[in-house]
Amino acid sequence: MTKKNKYNIQFRIWFFAGNEKLLGIGRVELLEKIKETGSIANAAKLMKMSYRQAWQMVTEMNERSNKPLVEKQLGGKSGGGTIVTQAGLKVIDEFNKMKNKVKVFINEESKKIKL
Question: What is the pTM of this model?
Answer without folding.
Answer: 0.85
